[in-house]
Design goal:
Structural class: mainly beta
Helix content: under 10%
Shape: flat
Distance between the termini: 132 Å
Radius of gyration: 53 Å
């Protein structure tokens, strides 16, 4: 072959092997080209001077050294830094990266020998012609080049110290510890701390402890991310389901007795209590049961554990004391009452209270021979706003008490009436009225026995009624001896004899015996106890770490003496005098107390297991509230590295040098008096800073070098560590990068169990994530974010972001597979790679991750990202009409052209198709607007067009019919065999027809066509017709457009039909004179054929009439109303042409009724009727009904037809009037239609119309007169009836 060599001074060049080799080098360069083929190498002058070389730096290679120089290494130049180039950028030369070592570069042997690196015949090292770096014309193999890594062929000179170019090699860095995972505790304010750990935030598992910093029931979760620091940033991989901190069992019970005295007639003993756990927390685990002992009980009406408030631990327990516990008399006795809570049948906490039981007052009643009324009042005192019940009884001795009236007076300064709903009686029907004027208000009660034959309404214990009254809010405390008085207006027997009249009632109350007045004792709303609790019982002092304070609010609730069931009714924030609770504590180094808020912060110098807080309100004192204060005894800062170096070749965008970063971790030992110390990681709570921000910058939990020197990294004044920054360099080795599925983390355990609230409680969580190289990406658009870390020659690493020069590009094999964008996560941007449309399936080295210096553009290090793209073939395709453009049902829809009348019928002028492809593992994927979806009109192409997004619109023209649209995916290899089709019709209104039918309408009239309008009988007036219109579309469907169409009527000779008018939106044709009119109906642009309507002077005579009046009663027919009432009757008329008028009286407004019909009454003194068919009720029918007759009006040569109606008149009572007899039919008749016969007994109802003015009907007095010669009174039945 031909070898041409051109060299500069001090250059040794050797060309060996067949073929042509051309080498052009500058001074101080050694270049060798070997092997068949053509190799061209060009390097710039002034290339590398001195470099770091491995052992045996001079170029002896095998047995035939090529281009070696004896004692002087080729091209060494003093102190030039390794790898610097003159005019030729790094890595731009063919096979020899700029900055080659003084020893012979790899691949410089002149002989093929044993095939040293890059020297084989078919695979020459370097480039051929314009072929990219590292590839050959024929074989295209790649090789790896490194600076200063070998001393001689076949041996390794020393450790890797510089950048390894793996851009074209599918090789990765060693994986990072824990894959760069960061685990954090999140989700709850004041969450527990992570366990103390090393400075590196990366950990596949981590423990979290000190859950006593949380309140019970708080929800937290463990989250995982890739990258970021211990506290923020990184790519989120999701979190565990929320777990809660578990409340502990109650260990202490504090009880307050609300009903200090219990009465026999209100035997409810009420206790308020508060629960605490062993550490004084009010949020305790709800017990299984609450029990009361020390007194016999007969029930627990309100003692359920559900009443315990989850926040305050306050509960209420009401028990009913058994009647056997109460002695009879006027004294009292005492009991020690115990209340306890238990879990699983085991008592956990209890307390005792002292209760007083008042003796029961002996029951009293009226003397057996004394007729009158006794009002029984409660013995027990009542609180303001409390409602109570009184019971009213009567003694009739031997009389049957059929009626009563009493007036109950009450003092409005003490009591108020609770309303009618609080009054009840089982034996009597009551009428109530209340008077609220005067010094004493009163309730008037009238009672009528429901059953006068009942034995319960005779004797000395007749229960008349119960009523409720309420103690007014401002009632004075103490006994109101005359709170009630009462007057018995009348007690009446079944014979209407008053056996008691205007007599005072007697009372029984807490004083015992019979009284002339009723006493009510008002209890003052006193405060009987105080309960206190803290919002947080464990306080961790973080002031030395970050300057923040922690507080606990002490809340106090005053327990009121009341009968209540809820916290709102039983507790208050102030006592009966309005004083609020106050808090105090002895001087303590654990914190400060302001009001009832305890703070740990700048004044806190120590911790303690118990910090007591006293709570008082007036004379009331609560059990002390105890707090635990944890104080940081010491703190330590750990740095991943305390010596940061300059990163060789790296610079900022402003070309300033870049130094290493290191993660920081802060741990603290928390403890205090009688506390067991715990060591926790407080990194995320600590305020980290640098003593010299020009040397070391601190951001979050990371320190970064900025210039040579040293600085102290501090946590306020509690901890510090020294970090130095040197000018010595560390070289990037490679980039470790992975493609992370968004949110794809696996946790162990997958669900964190509920955690106990103790300082030593901890939970360990491990996490891992599935990288996209491990599982297939089966959908376009699937992918993840790239987490990348630079590894350095000293074994350290740090995260790379797009902002720091990270570049991501697909490899050649994946050029059409993955697309890249950036996404924002927290405060950082990350590269995101996703499967591109039409991507082929591929697996392996998907992306090149390059760290490019922002200043020079030099690649500092690189790596690859693996991925597995496995897109399935579509199983099927489907196409349908989108729900956004409904145009029919089933597989076919119909649209119309813009401007066609069919649009008024709801037909759309377009249709949106919806296309999906069904993929295994994915289901239906929307491809409607995908550019690979092809819409083709395979039939009816002159009818419609389809846009690329699947919108179908009609084409201009007149054609109608069906268009078939095929949906295919010819350019999409995974769906090239899938297709679907749909039919879309284009339809227009083609014809319109109309018809006229009789008007007014009647059943069956729509089946009768009207072409002639005749004179109605002999009225001289003409019939009318209702016009209906129907359009038919090109698809054969018909639609009623009667209310939408327009109508015109014209007459050539005379105005036979009046101008068209509408009734209920539909046209009605009205004849006005004999003749013919031409009628045309139009709908949009479509008009009907003109058709005649004839108006004929020939009469349509009346052939039948029928009464159709709706009376107040139809069986028997009765005109029932007050005297003088009128009613318009109704008559149906049939005409000789077969048409009917269903209401000739009120439904034929253009025809005077008298010109068509005549009316008559057989008894006008009872029911009269006008010529217009209006009936008037004048009197009741006592013996027989009134015959009403309707007949057709006289008409020449036409027979008259008539009909009769038998109607009873029956007067209703006016307001204030009384009516006798049946309401319908004959008033005095057993069945309403037949008159009484001799010996027959009939019932005669008496009805009073009292009106609807809301007043109470109390009394009526009337005399009933009847002819004794004809009638005998058999008996009276009393009831109340209001029509």
């Amino acid at each position: 072959g031909t070898t041409t060599t051109s060299t500069g001074a001090g250059t040794t060049t050797t060309s060996t092997g067949a073929g042509t080799t051309t080498t052009s080098t500058g001074a101080g360069t050694t270049t060798t080209s070997t092997g068949a083929g053509t190799t061209t190498t060009s390097t710039g002058a002034g290339t590398s001077g001195s470099t770091s070389t491995g052992a045996g730096t001079t170029g002896t290679t095998g047995a035939s050294p090529a281009g070696t120089t004896a004692s002087s290494p080729v091209g060494t130049t003093g102190a030039s830094p390794a790898g610097t180039t003159g005019a030729s950028p790094a890595g731009t030369t063919g096979a020899s990266p700029v900055g080659t070592t003084a020893s012979a570069p790899v691949g410089t042997t002149g002989t093929t020998g044993a095939s040293p690196v890059g020297t084989t015949g078919a695979s020459p090292v370097g480039t051929t012609g314009a072929t990219p770096v590292g590839t050959t014309g024929a074989a295209g193999t790649t090789a790896s080049f490194s600076v200063g890594t070998t001393a001689s062929i076949g041996s390794t000179g020393g450790a890797t110290t510089g950048y390894t170019n793996t851009t074209d090699v599918c090789a990765t860095c060693s994986p990072l510890a824990a894959d760069g995972l960061v685990l954090r505790l999140s989700g709850a304010a004041g969450a527990g701390f992570p366990a103390a750990s090393a400075a590196s935030p990366f950990a596949a598992s981590r423990s979290f402890q000190t859950f006593s910093a949380l309140i019970p029931g708080s929800t937290s979760s463990v989250s995982a991310s890739v990258g970021g620091d211990a506290c923020s940033g990184g790519l989120s991989l999701g979190s565990t389901p929320g777990f809660t901190t578990q409340a502990a069992n109650a260990a202490t019970l504090i009880a307050v007795l609300r009903t200090t005295t219990v009465y026999a007639d209100y035997p409810v003993l009420s206790i308020a209590y508060a629960l605490r756990d062993a550490d004084g927390r009010p949020r305790v685990r709800r017990p299984d049961a609450v029990s009361v002992s020390g007194v016999a009980t007969s029930g627990y009406p309100n003692c359920a554990v559900s009443s315990i408030d989850a926040t305050t631990g306050v509960g209420f327990c009401d028990v009913v004391v058994s009647a056997s516990e109460f002695a009879t008399g006027t004294g009292s006795s005492s009991r020690t009452v115990n209340i306890a809570v238990s879990y699983g049948g085991v008592q956990a906490a209890s307390a005792s209270v002292a209760a007083t039981l008042a003796d029961a007052v002996a029951a009293v009643s009226l003397p057996t021979s004394t007729k009158g009324v006794l009002v029984a009042l409660p013995q027990a005192p009542r609180l303001p706003s409390e409602t109570f019940t009184i019971n009213v009884k009567a003694n009739s001795v031997t009389n049957v008490l059929a009626f009563f009236q009493i007036q109950i007076y009450f003092d409005p300064a003490v009591l108020s009436y609770a309303g009618d709903s609080g009054v009840a009686s089982t034996l009597y029907t009551l009428q109530l009225g209340v008077t609220t004027s005067g010094a004493m208000h009163y309730l008037s009660v009238i009672g009528s026995a429901k059953n006068t034959g009942s034995s319960s309404i005779v004797g000395n214990n007749i229960a008349l009624l119960s009523a409720q009254f309420t103690v007014v809010a401002g009632a004075a405390a103490g006994a109101a001896a005359s709170a009630f008085t009462a007057t018995v207006v009348a007690l009446t027997d079944v014979s209407n004899v008053n056996f008691v009249q205007v007599q005072p009632a007697s009372f029984s109350d807490g004083r015992g015996g019979l009284q002339t007045t009723g006493q009510t004792t008002v209890w003052p709303p006193a405060s009987v106890g105080i309960l206190a609790y803290a919002s947080a019982t464990d306080l961790f002092n973080v002031y030395p770490l970050n300057g923040d304070t922690r507080t606990s609010s002490i809340s106090a609730r005053i327990v009121k003496r009341s009968r209540c069931t809820t916290a709102a009714g039983c507790l208050t924030t102030s006592d009966s005098t309005g004083a609020v609770a106050t808090c105090s504590t002895p001087a303590t180094p654990t914190g400060t107390l302001s009001g009832c808020t305890f703070t740990v912060g700048s004044a806190t110098t120590a911790g303690a297991r118990a910090v007591p807080i006293s709570v008082t309100s007036g004379s009331l004192t609560a059990d002390p509230v105890s707090l635990r204060v944890w104080h940081p005894l010491s703190a330590t800062i750990a740095a991943g590295s305390t010596s940061l170096k300059r990163i060789a070749g790296a610079s900022t965008a402003q070309c300033a040098p870049v130094y290493q970063s290191t993660p920081l971790a802060v741990s603290a030992v928390y403890g205090g008096d009688q506390l067991t110390s715990v060591t926790v990681d407080v990194t995320c709570f600590a305020s980290l800073s640098s003593s010299d921000s020009a040397v070391v910058a601190v951001s979050g939990a990371k320190a970064t070098g900025l210039s040579a020197g040293s600085a102290q990294v501090r946590v306020r004044s509690i901890a510090s560590t020294s970090v130095s920054v040197s000018a010595a360099t560390v070289s990037p080795v490679c980039v470790s990068a992975v493609l992370v599925r968004d949110g794809n983390a696996a946790f162990t355990p997958s669900t964190v169990p509920t955690q106990p609230l103790t300082a030593s409680a901890s939970v360990s969580v491990a996490a891992s994530f599935v990288k996209n190289a491990d599982t297939a990406l089966i959908a376009e658009g699937a992918g993840g974010a790239v987490a990348a870390f630079a590894q350095f020659s000293d074994g350290s690493y740090q995260e790379l972001l797009p902002s720091s020069g990270l570049k991501i590009v697909p490899t050649d094999a994946f050029a059409l597979v993955l697309n890249t964008t950036t996404l924002t996560s927290g405060n950082s941007d990350y590269w995101r790679a996703f499967v591109a449309p039409n991507a082929p399936n591929a697996a392996g080295c998907a992306l090149k991750a390059r760290w490019v210096d922002p200043c020079s553009g030099t690649t500092l290090a690189d790596g690859v990202v693996s991925a597995n793209v496995s897109l399935p073939t579509a199983g099927s395709a489907s196409v349908s009409i989108s729900s956004s453009t409904p145009c029919g049902t089933g597989a076919t829809c119909s649209i119309t052209r813009t401007g066609d009348a069919a649009t008024q019928l709801g037909r759309r002028t377009d249709a949106q198709l919806s296309v999906t492809l069904n993929f295994p593992g994915q289901g239906a994927v929307d491809f409607t607007a995908d550019p690979r979806t092809v819409y083709t009109v395979v039939s009816g192409s002159s009818l419609v067009s389809v846009s690329s997004s699947g919108r179908v619109t009609p084409l201009a023209g007149t054609g109608t019919g069906a268009a078939v649209i095929n949906v295919t995916f010819p350019s999409y290899s995974r769906a090239s065999a899938a297709w679907a089709a749909i039919t879309v019709r284009v339809d227009v209104v083609q014809s319109l027809t109309w018809r006229a039918t009789p008007y007014p309408t009647y059943t069956g009239s729509s089946n009768t066509n009207t072409t002639t309008l005749r004179q109605i009988a002999c009225t001289g007036l003409y019939q009318r017709a209702l016009v209906s219109a129907t359009v038919r579309l090109s698809d054969g469907t018909a639609s009623d457009v009667s209310t939408l169409a327009d109508l015109t009527a014209s007459s050539s000779n005379t105005a036979a039909v009046a101008a068209p008018s509408k009734v209920s939106s539909q046209y009605v044709l009205a004849g006005v004179a004999p003749g013919t009119s031409t009628v045309t109906v139009a709908f949009g642009s479509v008009a009907s054929t003109a058709a005649p309507i004839v108006v004929d002077s020939t009469s349509a005579s009346v052939t039948a009439v029928q009464w159709t009046t709706s009376w107040q009663s139809s069986s028997p027919k009765t005109f029932a109303a007050i005297v003088g009432s009128v009613k318009t009757t109704a008559v149906s008329v049939t005409l000789s042409d077969g048409t009917r008028i269903t209401d000739a009286v009120g439904g034929l407004p253009w025809v005077p009724v008298a010109s068509l019909l005549t009316f008559a009454s057989s008894d006008s003194s009872r029911i009269s009727i006008t010529t217009g068919g209006v009936a008037s009720l004048l009197a009741s029918s006592y013996r027989e009904p009134v015959t009403l007759t309707v007949a057709s009006a006289a008409c020449p040569s036409v027979s008259t037809v008539a009909a009769t109606d038998l109607v009873y008149g029956n007067l209703e009572p006016a307001v204030g009037d009384i009516d006798l007899g049946n309401r319908y039919g004959l008033p005095f008749s057993a069945d309403g239609v037949t008159t009484p016969t001799f010996g027959q007994t009939i019932a005669v109802p008496m009805r009073l119309n009292f009106g609807t003015n809301g007043a109470f009907f109390t009394f009526t007095s009337f005399n009933l007169y009847y002819p004794a010669a004809w009638l005998k009174l058999q008996g009276i039945t009393f009831n109340l009836y209001y029509p």
